[in-house]
Amino acid sequence: MALERTLSIIKPDAVAKNVIGEIESRFEKAGLRIVAMKMMHLSREKAEGFYAEHKERPFFKDLVDFMTSGPVVVQVLEGEDAIKANRDLMGATNPQEAEAGTIRADFAQSIDANAVHGSDSAASAEREVSYFFADDEICPRA
Ligand code: RTP
Ligand code: MG
């Protein structure tokens, strides 16, 4: 296992449901540390650039509409095996298929409004962390 960083987003549906703290608590209880954090309302341009890998997919417009529909919390989580640990806590993309006790099973309504984002690989994590944070905005504590 290695100490890793991963990019996490609490999406507009979860912010609107007022469960930011409950979601953060799951990360902390699992031993992940929040080492950078900001709340923001994504512009279309910022959301499109973030999800550029999906730009030819049929759901791209809906995804950008949703991600720009309200404020989000963007953060960097640090810990052992953080990328997979975060994905495990999140559960499957479609909350209907997410394992009981995962964030998406407990807080998400649909495949679009699915509560959280997490980087899916080391390469994505590196790109996504630097997409939102400068080096001096990250405060390692591990
Ligand atoms: P995310 O990137 O948001 O963490 O989600 P993910 O890795 O679990 O899923 P991904 O395949 O990267 O898809 C990004 C987001 O696009 C929406 N989506 N809709 N209608 C569909 O078939 C479909 N597939 C994906 C989801 O909201 C997903 O989180
Ligand atoms: Mg993804």
TrEMBL record:
InterPro entries given in the database record: NDK-like_dom (IPR034907), NDK-like_dom_sf (IPR036850), Nucleoside_diP_kinase (IPR001564)
Sorted UniProt keywords: ATP-binding, Cytoplasm, Kinase, Magnesium, Metal-binding, Nucleotide metabolism, Nucleotide-binding, Phosphoprotein, Transferase
Subcellular location(s) of the protein: Cytoplasm
Superkingdom of origin organism: Bacteria
Main location: cytoplasm
GO molecular function term, any single one: kinase activity
Gene3D superfamilies from the UniProt entry: Nucleoside diphosphate kinase-like domain
Active site: residue positions: 117 (pros-phosphohistidine intermediate)
Reaction equations catalysed: a ribonucleoside 5'-diphosphate + ATP = a ribonucleoside 5'-triphosphate + ADP; a 2'-deoxyribonucleoside 5'-diphosphate + ATP = a 2'-deoxyribonucleoside 5'-triphosphate + ADP
Binding annotation for ATP: 11, 59, 87, 93, 104, 114
Record EC number: 2.7.4.6
Residue intervals of the Nucleoside diphosphate kinase-like domain: 3-140
Cofactor list: Mg(2+)
Family the entry assigns: Belongs to the NDK family.
Function: Major role in the synthesis of nucleoside triphosphates other than ATP. The ATP gamma phosphate is transferred to the NDP beta phosphate via a ping-pong mechanism, using a phosphorylated active-site intermediate.
Subunit (UniProt): Homotetramer.
Classification via NCBIfam families: PRK00668.1
Protein's recorded name: Nucleoside diphosphate kinase
